[in-house]
Design brief:
By secondary structure, this protein is mainly beta. Strand 12 and strand 13 form a beta hairpin.
Length: 199
Amino acid sequence: MDVKNYARFSTIGLTLRKNPISGSASVGSIKKGWKVVVTHKAEGGRVHINAGSNSGWIKESGNLRKHGPYSVAVYGTLRTGQSAYNVMSGFQQKVKDQRLANSSLYQLWNRNWTFLTNGPKTVVAEQFQYSDSAGPGMLRKLDIYEGQLTYQGRPMYTRQNVPLTDGSESWTYKTTSFSEPVVKNSGRYISSGDFLKRS
């Protein structure tokens, strides 16, 4: 049956099957930690997923989770083609045109300094998925990179697990309880929610 599409992350490497019947022909595979979109459900707890150019049936229970432990959603200079994109190297999957839920985007002091805050709308993002071997090092690297921007000796960003509009959750760098009022009081609101459409 059709379901409202929702996104998840694979907990293991998975073989995709042609139909929901156990033992049906393989039509491809995906790696552990990949983001997938569930489009249909069948009896026996099997679901049809899309993962980039791959699609097929898998068993959902135990194989999919909402939060990607090494998935990072980025919305500013770390996006494809932007000034800090090279920092995001070594990913195993990238998914564009995503939206962070319940968020707002602000620009403060410098054209490239954008801040994700709590808000009523959505913010455009990309999600990068890293393997178990690369993920811990990548998160440490990003914690250091994002920790460089401070105000009154305190960091402006902190890594938080945030929801996306497709039902998945990823790490991202968001304003702290200290920096959010600073950003909202002194920054410029980017109404489009898109870093690429700021002025």
